[in-house]
Design a protein that fits this description.
The protein is mainly beta and 79 residues long. It contains no helices and three strands. Strands 2-1-3 form a three-stranded antiparallel beta sheet, with no helix packed on it. The protein is globular, with a radius of gyration of 14 Å. The mean pLDDT is 81.
């Protein structure tokens, strides 16, 4: 089942489709986007065009200037 995410960032909106039937229990990167400090950047999730339930429990924003060190492909942070 595909989940439609819309990333609202620096004057634009980008749609990212994620298959929720794979990669359960891990962080799924949506891409790299510019967010301007003091503005209302966000991520929206929709069940539009899908035939089941769409589930999300968190969104993680990571600074490109100071990215965390990742332990594995599941993007589990070291610290």
């Amino acid at each position: 089942m595909d989940a439609r995410h819309v990333v609202h960032h620096a004057g634009a909106n980008t749609t990212v489709i994620v298959n929720q039937q794979i990669n359960g229990g891990v962080w799924v990167p949506l891409g790299r986007f510019l967010f301007v400090s003091g503005t209302a950047g966000s991520v929206s999730l929709s069940n539009q065009a899908t035939s089941g339930n769409v589930i999300a429990d968190a969104v993680r924003f990571v600074s490109v200037a100071n990215p965390p060190l990742f332990l594995d492909a599941a993007l589990t942070a070291l610290g």
